[in-house]
Protein 1
Amino acid sequence: MIGDVIDIRFFYTRMLEIGSWISRDQYSGRVLLIPNSSIFGSPILNYTQYFSCIWDEVTLPITYQSNMERAVKILTDVGGQYSQSFLKDAQRELEEMKQKFLVPKLEFEPTVYVKVTSNWVQLTMCYMVEAKKRRAASSYIYKQVFSQVQQAKDIQIASETMDLTVQPAKAA
């Protein structure tokens, strides 16, 4: 069960459900009533108690012939433009967390990882986003990236396709 806690009582906790039949981080509209006995016996994942941002990824498959360096630059530029407005607050929050916990050095700037697959080169950008804006952020980033990729003549988005070559029949 995933959601935002909206009420805590002695025996029950209520959450506004996220996910289920709705993809990604959208509310389903259901209110979950969870017995506290089941909560206190399980790990609790909290997205915002000490740090308001999380990391997310967007993936861009490109053909082998594409200009990979240019595609990486497009991804990092768009990711950097998106996240620059809240990175200072995130860095401040991290410094506050370091006063309470043993927190390692974390990467705040968008980073692109490259993976060669059997069909394409997969570029995956890991970027920081405010926890409750993950779906909107990835949608914005994809729109910006696709707009720039469509203008680039040397980058082609890859997809699972099959090329068939038909040979003419040989005369007998």
Protein 2
Amino acid sequence: MSERRLTHLHLQPDHPRVEAAFWREAEGRRTKCYLCPRFCSVPEGSVGFCGVRGNFGGKMYALSYGRLTACAVDPIEKKPLFHFKPGSHVLSISTAGCSFACQFCQNFEISQRRRVEEGYTGPEEVVDSALELGADGITGTYNEPTTQIEYLLDVMKLARKKGLFTTWVSNGYMTPEAVEALAPHLDAITVDFKGNANVQFYRKYIYVPSPAPIFDAIRELQARKVHVEVTNLAVPVPEGSDLGDVKKIADFLLDVQGEDASFHLLAFHPDYKMLNVPASPPEMLLKMYAIAKEAGIKYVYIGNVGEDKYETTFCPVCSTAVVVRSILGVKKNVLKGSSCPTCGFRLPIVT
């Protein structure tokens, strides 16, 4: 499967050849990538599954380095990070390519494109833009940030020096080597499960053998003191509708994060190659919500439905609505530091 989508390279003549990290030489002038658990073995003149890590003359290069496909300021709640810097804004950046092939991707124009076409933007320009636009942090998002890790690490190191925080929105499909390099420079991450992390769902709709490495990455990121929030896209197909799988994710989060665990359930909307699949029924999302709550998770949210009450953080002790959110960000925040103003309970929210 690792070579399923190998293609010939498509590069602009002025593309700076930035040598990639996380690779080793292999037989026959191949380069073996150790960035994600696909471990692509890439022949000379080709790229790996993600489309943006290529073999030139027996060396692997990060072809999307600095080639931004999108750049925009978003409320951090859109990521969605609900327990990290509520009310702040981030400069969101992306490149082409992805380690997944989600048949329902809403950003398929960039994530599923296996061609690098954009002009070059240096890391300094990104950080300067974030400061000029009044952003509080920088986020790798829209496509899988792991595929552009060399560039993002350079951006993140500069951002930290300028007082900006750093976050990712990721599928979590990364190797221990990638986590080790990333964690010291990352403040917070949203890890997105799809289809309740069901193995058959990942194989059929994402072309991933197993979501198991994602659980390992979350555990390691948490151990390295990165703020982690987990989402689950609720896709109403047989392979993604097993409510027992929701319980497994909830139990995992409680094991890793304890009483601080939060869980975002996201409604599916038809897109890309799955236009024939309807949006997530409200009753499906509510059942998942109830299962996560019954498992013991105090902070469960439902996103993509446009109802503020399911995106509001309530104090688990006295039920005060401490942070009220909408699709546009925070509407009301009555926290005193990280504590409830009514009963004084300290919530697991980084302010």
